[in-house]
Amino acid sequence: MRTFIGAIVSLAQGFYTTFQFFFQKKPTIAYPSIKKQHAPRFHGLHELRRYADGKERCIGCELCAIACPANAITVIGAENTPEDRRSPGERYAARYEIDELRCIFCGLCEEACPTDAIVLTPRFEMSDYRRGSFIYAKDRLLVPPEAGVGTSPDERPNGIPSDLGSVLAQKSTVDIASGYSATWRGELLKTDRKGLAG
Amino acid sequence: MNGAPKEVTLTIDGTQLTVPEGTLLVEAAKRIKTDIPVYCYHPKLGPAGLCRICLVDVEKTPKLQIACNTTVGEGMVVHTYGPKVEDGRRAVLEFLLLNHPLDCPICDKGGECDLQDYSIAYGQGASRLADPKEIKPKAIDLGPTIVLDDERCIVCQRCTRFDEIITLEQSLVVKDRGQRDVIATATGTPYVSMFSGNVTELCPVGALTSKTYRFKSRPWDLNRSLTTCVQCSAGCAINVDERHGEVLRTMSVPGDDAVSEGWLCDRGRYNVGFYSDPRRLTSPLLRRDGEWVQLGWEDAIDLWARTLHEAVDSAGPKSLAALGGGRLTNEEAYLIGHVFRALGCENIDWRTGRQRQASPGPRGGTYADVESAQAIVLVGVPPAQTTPIMSLRIRKAVSQRGARMILVGDYALPIRVAHERVARPRDLASLDLDRYERIAFFWDGIDPRVGSELNEFAEGLAEGRKIFTYVTGETPNARGAEGMGLVPRSGGRDSVGMLAAARDGNLRSLAIFAANPVLHMPGGADSVRGAIENVPFVVTTELFMTPTAERSTLVLPARGPFEKSGHTFDVTGAVRVLRPGVAAPTGTLSDLEILIALASALGVDVPGPAALHRQAALHAPWVARGFGDPALFAEGELKAPRAGAKATGLRLVIAADLFSGGGTVYHDDRLGELRPLATAALSEHTAAVAEVHDGYLVDIVAAEGTLRGLVVRVAPNHVDGTVTILEGLPDAPASAFEGGQTVALANVRAARVPVGVA
Amino acid sequence: MPLWLFVVIKSALVLFVVVTTFAYAMLAERKVLAWMQLRPGPNRVGPWGLLQPAADAAKMLFKEDLTPATADSLIYRLAPWISMITAMGVFAVIPFSESSSGLWSIGDVNAGILFVFSLTSLGVYGISLAGWSSGSKFPLLGSLRSTAQMISYELAMTLSVVGVLILAGTTSLAGIVHAQNKLWFVIPQFLGFIIYVITAVAETNRAPFDLVEAETELVGGFHTEYSGLRFGLFFIAEYLNMITVSCIATLLFFGGWNPLFGLSVIPGIVWFVLKVGFVIFIYIWLRATLPRLRYDRLMAFGWQVLLPLATLNLMATAAIVAWKG
Amino acid sequence: MTFFWVLAIALIATAVFTVTQRSPVHSVVGLLANFVVLATLYLTLNAEFIFVMQIIVYAGAILVLFVFVISLLSAGTGPFSEGPNRMPRALVPAALVALTGFGFLIYGLARGPLGILPPHVATSHPGEVGQSGVFGSVADFGVALFSTHLLPFEITAFILMVAVIGVVVLAGDAALAPTRGHHVRRRTQEREAIVKAER
Fold first, then answer.
1. How much is the average pLDDT of C60-87?
2. Cα–Cα dist B25/C23, whole Å
3. Deepest in the core among A26, B277, C160, C232, taking most CB within 10 A?
């Protein structure tokens, strides 16, 4: 009997709690109209950086891919040739793709990178209508050459690239309409799906 | 040496163990599962004592000893770890890393590198080097397959010793001394070897890398699966490393001592790019009014079955024929015979190339038998070009056991090795072979008359001796095809007869399974092509649009060996297992699936998978012993050589090349320079007489026509008065010509072609 | 005006009102839930988010409608309509206010309450067939759960209502309301009311008895594979069921349109709507407060607690009515 | 009358649908539709209580169990949906049985009186529902069930009870099987017995 009464009392307590909250002031911020200042080291969208001379920092070593707990990064390396030199060493990333839908923004790729090529920027608004467009390839990850020339990325405040507008502007120029087929991982997903359906 | 070897008892890390006298410490430690780090030492190459990473502490010796070159002694007490040992190893590693670049993130070895691993285990974290590191050349093009990074080299000399001890080719050396030593070829020419890929595996650091794999992937990305290489009939176990549905590299299997001993030839290692080639066929194609039309699988199989039924109904089962099987698994070969015999068709043959026989008869030997032979007789094409791994055993027997090497015929050996040469097997009688107890005979399986002469001779010797015979032909699973009964029985036609019947218009339907007779069948490409075009309905299962497939009515996209499972027999008749290592492209089916679909469309019962696998392995001991059904080995008639053309006295030799062929090699872009040029090889003397030089372009005029634009190669080991051309090149088809006829060189041009592959 | 035209017009009107009510019941649920969870809830579409239902409807209509390759397409298409039709059919017999001329209900059936139960008992088909025909694991599990749960709780629900029927002496819904002119049955039938509320929550598959959907374990349960308008039909059906059981609770236990405190100046329909709204609020409150039950606990609770209690309540009521004559 | 014919045709159509489906679930759906149409037919006869009972008991309870069992056991891929179509072979005997039954029905209808309603029960008119003495009302039904037909009612209840017990005995093996605790207890007992015996 005592437990029965106890059950009733605790049930009533639960109902009272939720009822109390019903009238309390809500702490929610009206996000799109009011934007909160994020922390200086906020982990947002990735960016691949360049050296001051415009060469890509990424050497395609795949250490970020192996460090990634969500298995979101795909890197396929290739060799620099004298005619087409992308990065200082022998190797560069022919393909560098991040599935931002898988990414958990933990920043381990940043930690793993031996050349500080991949960094997480504070950008976080990247919603889109197609899954395929969340697979960011080098065309959207890599800082445009003009942004990298002159300033070493290390000298930017907080180590975060100051100018994100160029990346933003680039997004609209990149053909993401083709969605999956624009990226290697997307192609794989597509063939996988084909395999499942067939 | 007689009697049991003496046993020695010693203590390693407190564990007492007894090993035979003469065992090296590093091997003894393996018995108690203690791993002593090594760089220069390799079980197959022996000790060198160069790198000194294997330092161990042996009690009662003043200094640390190297485990790889110290033999065990009675009562020895060894410590493989401890402060003293670790100090020593740390010092050694500091020296090794002195000039070694810290570019692990871009190094292809990173992740499977011994230097990396031992540096983590024993090395000291920071470098004490104050001066800049030694700058050495990087990315040196060592040859068609290998790129060398001298900065990473720790001069363990595994590669040079492999080249010296195992392949006997002796082209790699350590050039210069001290701080400036680098790996190079002795002559300064490119490093060319059919076993070159092995040095990349032997290299304990990332100094030697494969051109096909450079910067493609990292080791942890790869999905590895173990299967059997069926590029030739050697049957080596092979590890297939796949990523994103693409075979990126293949690796040898260290434990495969029964066959490959842990080596791979370059064809097996590098000819894997074709799996992901965009030219792969992925849909059944039907030729309708000269155009290729895509077809669904069901329609294709139905059409085939209907045509077969109609042909049987209207012209009887003798109007059907099936070719091929020598490149398929045993299961598939068995099903070809099963399905077509169910229709009453006996025109079944696997012999779609020059090879006419696969079984060595009752005296077939094993790989181990080769090593023990005191005399080795090579009849016809040497095994190096057909079954390279077998040739490594022969080289081992010659170099390490002093076996006598005798070459029969005009073919050249790829390496400089002391040998004698006679023209025909019957001439062997003059060589006093009866003083040997163990003799191995190798035959290429091409000319049946040579084969019977060889058999006769071997039978004559057999009394009281161990005779091992091998047929090292060029067809990968020829023994499987023979064992599964893919030869005409009771009045059926063989492949030559089938083509004759086709020319006469007596064939209504021809099925060609994974074969390319247009390129490989003797009798001339034009005549084979004409015969095939004369058959109203030709079905070909192929990976690519080969010359044969181009002339078929229906082409079915098949799967390659790494894309299916099954069994094969190797050259010694042992069973090897195939397992899928990479996903096949959508739209392809394995020949087994194609045959099962055909059987069900025809209404023929097929054995279930379990029964099929039993069938495929059941014949194994039977084939291994060589006691085949004699009827199985009935020979088809070869045309007699015709009288020669205007002779300038050169005898034509048609040699096989490891990288010839119009299918997988032709469609593998990664192979690049490895694909042979169309060459005419001459001995130095002949070249001098004919006044041609290395790299000239010539035409060869023979009775059947002219072969144009061959590159002259002046090479050692060729018989004077012969010109050797390569078989199976789509650009210069040698199948139109008969070996042994006299030909003339014409239209010599002094156009120098860059030095490439010999 | 012929009778049939009158009925058709009334049906159309009721459907319109009911569907609008559904839309705003949904909005109300989201708002109330949000407030109870210290959130503002939908507030971007229209003033205070009032046009949210319209936005939702538009989205639902234009969303891609998928049918899994493994689905049984006939039944897959049929199931949402079964749910929807049975949920709507109930409103045919519900009287919304005092109606001597039959104005405030579409049809007054003498076995009204039985008709309601018969239709709600058909509602389970929508869910169980949807789950089965989707041809995938989670929906099948959801539909099996739903079948077992609905059968188990329907018994107790029916028994809990029988007490009211004995007191009222009729199965006509209007008759039951008339019987409560003096005293609402929630007082003599308090145990029956509690059992009814619990079983009704279970019958409508709402939290904390929403094991049929159970997002955390069954990723949506029976409607995992549904999208677009078909999913919308299930959604509508769920809310209509909630409104239905609230109406029934009002009619059976809260005196229907009978005014409170003798305030008969306010029309009956207002009282009815207010009472229904109160019951719906309790529903939402329950969802905001209680976590989902474990499946075996749910079944044990149904069979071992609710059913005996309902039987006891029935027998006691019958005995008292018989004893009092 | 038009309504009757519509219902009658729907009734036969759904019945045929039920027996001709290969998927058991399709059959169940057909049967469900059949029950609903039948119930509607009762409704047109003013038998509201029967209508409700038909739906609650048959459609709402029994058929739900069918669905439950079918989805639980076979998930729709049972032997019914595979294998050859057995309909043609059963066609002749089924037709014979159906025709015989139909013949009996015609014979019975032709023989018996057409006015089958008891004299004291009047046919109901709109607005009269729910009153006792009107055909199909709950009150009359209750009176009949608990007075005139009390014995059959009780016997039926008894038979059902027996059936329930039977089902529990047949299917309840797992429920009656020893629990894990039982095993532990038994092992303990055995060990104690052994210890005792050794002493």
1. 84
2. 84
3. C160
Residue D79 φ/ψ, nearest 5 degrees: -65, -20
C-alpha–C-alpha distance, residues C270 and B469, integer Å: 106
Question: Taking CB atoms and an 8 Å cutoff, what residues of chain A touch B138?
Answer: 90
In chain A the domains, ranked by start, together with CATH numbers, are 28-197 (3.30.70.3270)
Return the residue matching tokens 């180590």.
A159
Q: What is the pTM of this model?
A: 0.66
pLDDT at A171: 38
CA distance linking residue B354 with residue B351, whole number of Å: 7
Substitution target in C38, C191, C201, C305 with the highest count of A β-carbons within 10 Å is C38
Helices (H), chain A: 2-23, 63-67, 108-112, 138-141, 145-148, 165-173, 184-197
Predicted local distance difference test score (pLDDT) of residue B41: 92
Report the alpha-carbon angle C302-C307-C311, nearest 5.
170
- Cβ neighbour number for residue B611 with a 10 Å cutoff: 11
Mean pLDDT of D131-152: 73
On whether any CB of chain C is under 8 Å from the CB of A33, the answer is no
Domains and CATH numbers, chain B: 7-96 (3.10.20.740), 132-276 (3.30.70.20), 285-355+478-567+585-618 (3.40.50.740), 367-471 (3.40.228.10), 650-749 (2.40.40.20)
Q: What is the largest CA-CA distance in chain B?
A: 92
Please give the Cα distance from B182 to B479 (Å, whole number). 45
Boundaries of domain holding C145 = 71-324
Q: Is B572 exposed, middle or buried (0-12, 13-18, 19+ CB in 10 A)?
A: buried
pLDDT band at D182 (very low <50, low <70, confident <90, very high): low
Q: Is D162 buried (19+), middle (13-18) or exposed (0-12) by CB count in 10 A?
A: exposed
Chain C positions touching A22 (Cβ under 8 A) are 32, 35-36
Is residue B706 a contact partner of residue B700, using CB atoms and an 8 Å limit? yes
Query: Which chains reach chain D with 3 or more Cβ–Cβ distances below 8 angstroms?
Result: C
pLDDT of residue A194: 39
How does the average pLDDT of chain C come out, rounded? 83
Residues of A in contact with C40 (CB under 8 A): 26, 28, 30
* Mean of pLDDT values over D145-151: 84
Q: Decide if the complex's ipTM is over 0.95.
A: no
**β-strands B466-471, B438-443 pairing:** parallel
B487 neighbors B349 (Cβ within 8 angstroms): yes
Check if A98 contacts B (Cβ < 8 Å). Answer: no
Residues of chain B with pLDDT under 50: 1, 619-647, 751-758
